[in-house]
Each structure stands twice: as C-alpha cells, then as structure tokens.
Design a protein that fits this description.
Elements lengths: L7 H15 L8 H15 L4 H10 L3 H12 L10 H18 L5 E6 L6 H11 L8 E8 L2 H9 L1 E3 L8 H7 E4 L3 E4 L1 H4 L2 E5 L17 E5 L9 H14 E8 L13 E3 L7 E4 L48 H8 L6 H16 L3 H14 L7 H17 L3 H14 L4 H13 L3 H14 L4 H10 L3 H16 L15 H11 L3
Parallel strand pairs: 1-2, 1-7, 2-6, 7-8
Antiparallel strand pairs: 3-5, 4-5, 8-10, 9-10
Helix pairs in contact: 1-3, 5-6, 11-12, 12-13, 12-14, 13-14, 14-15, 15-16, 16-17, 17-18, 18-19, 19-20
Length: 511
C-alpha cells in the first residue's frame, strides 16, 4: 500500500473517534465520505503520508488538538443571513409575538442558535428583534453556540463577505452593516452586543445549565445537525433541547429532520407552516383547579406533624394520558373501610400507586380525589394524606397540567413538611414553569432536610446564577458521588448511575 492510500482499519478507527468526540455518525457504507474529507485534509495540510498523520492524530495527539483538527474538517460552516425566508417571517409575525404575551410580566426573551456556525443565524435573530418596537425596554438574550472555535472566532469578529448576503435586503444592509475594503462588511456594534457566542458540544449533553446560559429558552434554532448523529444520541439531544425550552417555547429543525422527532412533549403546530415544534403548553388557569376538592373537614383538622422524615421514590413520569375509565372497581377494594379509620387512606394510596405504575393515571386521579374528599383527617396521619396529594400532583404533571400539579404538591408539603422528596418534586415543577427562583428555594429546603441529597445539589448548580455558588454546588455533587459505588443508582436520577452522573458533572465543569 502506498503512502497516499488510507487503510480501512484507520478509517474505521477515525469513524469511532468522530462518534466519541463529536457525536458524528458515519454508517460503514459511508466510509467513502470519510475518505473524501481525509483527501481534503491531505491537500490543505500538505500531508506527504496521510495515514501516518491519522495514526498520530488518533493515538498520540493531545485531546484538545485532536478535537480542534476533527472539528475543522468534519463540521460544516455553510450558512448565510436570513436563510429560508419563511422561517424568519414566522419568527417575526408569530413566534416572538406569542412569546411576548407569555413573558409580558417579566419582559424577558431568550433565543438560541445551535450550531451557530459563523454567526449569521444568531445575528439574523438580533436584527429581527431590533426591528420589533414591542420589545423596546425588554431584556433580550441571544446565544450562539458551536463546536468549532474557528467558526466562533468569525462570528465574534462580525466581518462577512458577499457570500453571506445571498438573501438580504438593501435596507437592512445599510442599517446594520458598514462596508470595508476587500468586499467585506462589518456588523454594527448594537447588533453585535446583543449576541453572546460560546463553545458547546451538543454530543456531550452538558446542557441546559445556567453556566452555559442554556436554560429557560423561548426559541431554539437547531437546523441541519441532528442528521449527523445516530438515533440514540439524537433522542438524548432532543430531550436536552426540550428541557432547555420554557413551557410553550419553540424548537426549529430543518425540513429533513422533522420526521426524526418523537418526543411526547414536543408537537408540530398546525397553525405554523414551517418546521417548528412547540413544547407542551399548560392549560389556562381556571378559577378552580381541576380536581380541587370541595371545602371539607379534611383541611381543618390535620394533626400536628410528629413523624420522622423518610425517603420514598415514585416511578418516573409516563407520557401520554390514559383514557378515562370508571373508577368504581378500584374503589370497591377500599370502600368497605370506614373513612374514619387510618387504614382507609393507606389502602387508597396503595391502590392508586398500583394504577399509576400501570399508566392508568386517570383512574388513579379519580380514586385519590374521592378519597381526599371522603377521608376523615382526624383519623388519618398527615403523612398518608400528603402522600395522596403528592401522587395526585405527579399525575397532573404527567398530563402536562403544571398548574394543578403545583397546587397539589404545595398542599402536600403544607400537610407534611418533613419529606425532602416532596420538596424536590415541587422544585422540578417550578423549573418546568420557568420559575428558577422558587425552584431554588425548594431545593435549599431539600438540603435542609437531607444534606446528602445528590440531585438537589446537581439541580442547584444548573439554575444558580452566581458562578461561584454554582461551582460549589457542583463540587458538593462530585464529593457525594465519589463516596458511592460507580454502579449505584442515584435517587431521583432517572436510573442514572453515580459513575455516569460524575462524568456529566466533570464535563459541565470542563474537566
């Protein structure tokens, strides 16, 4: 084999490294695409022996150097201002006006372009926002992230050639750009200051966090990148993007990527004729919360809490709503027990949990509501009544009804104040509602009750706006995880092991 040829074994090793470092997936039948990119690498770097170079790159080069070289040649920077005009019309005429209504009290709007390449998309967002008088006086956050540092350097410089203006109006050009010698154009300071650029690797899943400024986003543009990942990684990235969005927020994908979205919390809006997905919208608040029991002796006679705290775990959320069924059969099992007996609410909770774990949330809801209205508080322990309320809250959360979930979870912690798990669940509801301040208070209450609650530290690190405090929370998370076996399943970690969570913490801290 000549020095100009690349062995298949090296190509396969490069293929694995691309998956590990960048998350980019090349099926084996596409090795020719890798070979073609290596040929370009050979030309641009004047490589006499490309196989020896790749051997060094994959086995001996520093991790940071290998990463930079791979991103240089295997990431794509093709973009221009206002690419796909229909998208920008939808952004200006529909999406931003909707988010203005949703955020009218706080007057804050956050947009994220990922991957942002050389910045044209993020700056296009800034120009759309600047053209909207309704946003005068608002706090605007526009974030552009990419894996390629060279692209980010171009974006931060804000200097572009004619190729970036293929779909650009003369009016906007004269308003926001200044011509320079060499057929270059520099973007105005006012627009440049609206956008913050930073490095972020989607494949590492180290978002959303307050450190990366990727929480509580109103609108995310994520075009032409998911197609490069395998199915498993795509699903994980979509889940993280979903978590980064505010309730009712929008995610834009490329037309070729819409068919790969299969997430219960994201759905295409039929009223929008572009490739936007909306994060499940919470139903409007009614005068009476769905499932609110009539005023009764239940809330007037609760005994003073005297029981010691204990931990308990609930199963992970299930997606989708079960069809409504008659709950009489379930009630038959407990109706024979007088409501003034302590065993009544205990039996109801057991029956409701069983239904809940079988995805029969609507039946469990009816059973719990009737029990809470019927139960005699004078004969029931606060802990058992609170357990019923908390399970009801989880059912409403599964249905996407965060208002009712919050209502019942708060009732639960008012009834029994010593269970850290309940405060933790309520904090996640507030996070989903975009209220990081209240979520933070609840997480602090969790740690007051249980100083070794790992996920409370981990969540605090992500929502804390003070960088020093966030780092401290990460350190506490790390210290607790190091005390556990790497295969230990972390409580409230959705089945994640201590070893895996430790890796994520280290990645988030840039270790």
């Amino acid at each position: 084999m000549s020095k100009q040829e690349i062995s298949e074994s090296i190509l396969l090793q490069l293929r694995r490294q691309l998956s590990d470092d960048l998350g980019i997936y090349f099926p084996k039948e596409q090795l020719s695409d890798i070979r073609r990119i290596v040929a370009r690498m050979k030309r641009e770097r004047n490589l006499a022996d490309p196989e020896s170079f790749l051997t060094w790159l994959l086995n001996s080069a520093a991790v940071s150097e290998r990463f930079e070289i791979l991103t240089e040649f295997f990431t794509i920077g093709e973009t221009y201002f206002f690419r796909d005009s229909d998208v920008w019309k939808t952004l200006a005429n529909t999406l931003i006006p909707e988010r203005i209504k949703a955020n009218s009290s706080k007057k804050e709007l956050k947009l994220w372009s990922v991957p942002c390449s050389t910045g044209e998309e993020a700056y296009s967002m800034a120009m759309v926002v600047d053209e909207m008088p309704l946003l005068t006086g608002w706090s605007i956050g526009i974030l552009g992230t990419d894996i390629n540092q060279e692209f980010l350097d171009v974006a931060e410089n804000g200097i572009y050639r004619a190729w970036s203006f293929r779909n650009f109006s003369e009016r906007l050009y004269h308003k926001y750009f200044t011509s320079q010698p060499g057929k270059k154009s520099v973007i105005s300071d006012s627009i440049q200051k609206m956008v913050h650029f930073s490095k972020l690797n989607l494949a590492k899943l180290n978002f959303p966090t307050s450190i990366t400024n990727t929480t509580n986003v109103d609108i995310i543009f994520c075009r032409n990148v998911l197609i490069y990942f395998d199915e498993e990684l795509r699903k994980k990235i979509i889940q993280q993007l979903y978590s980064a969005l505010k309730p009712g927020g929008f995610l834009l994908l490329a037309a070729s990527e819409t068919s790969i979205v299969d997430h219960p919390g994201l759905y295409p809006d039929k009223n929008i004729q572009t490739h936007f997905f909306r994060k499940g919208v919470v139903a409007p608040v009614k005068k009476e919360f769905p499932g609110t029991v009539k005023k009764s002796h239940l809330f007037d006679c609760l005994k003073k809490e005297t029981e010691t705290k204990r931990k308990k775990s609930f199963r992970k959320k299930v997606s989708g709503r079960s069809k409504t069924k008659n709950t009489n059969k379930n009630i038959e099992n407990v109706s024979s027990i007088p409501s003034c007996e302590k065993q009544y609410i205990v039996e109801v909770n057991a029956a409701a949990r069983k239904l809940y774990t079988k995805n029969k949330g609507t039946e469990a809801e009816g059973l719990l509501l009737q029990a809470l209205e019927k139960s005699d508080a004078a004969c029931s322990s606060p802990k058992d009544i609170a357990e019923a309320m908390q399970l009801l809250a989880r059912i409403y959360a599964d249905h996407g009804n965060l208002e009712s979930a919050c209502h019942w979870a708060e009732k639960g912690v008012e009834t029994y104040k010593l269970n850290p798990d309940d405060y933790f669940f309520l904090s996640t509801v507030y996070q989903e509602r975009g209220d990081a301040k209240q979520a933070k208070k609840l997480l602090q209450q969790v740690l007051f009750l249980d100083p070794d609650f790992v996920m409370a530290y981990f969540y605090l690190a992500q929502i804390e706006t003070d960088t020093k405090k966030a780092v401290k929370h990460f350190q506490n998370t790390e210290n607790l995880l190091k005390q556990k076996d790497s295969n230990h399943i972390v409580s409230h970690g959705d089945g994640m092991t201590a070893g895996r969570l430790l890796e994520i913490v280290n990645t988030m801290q840039g270790q």
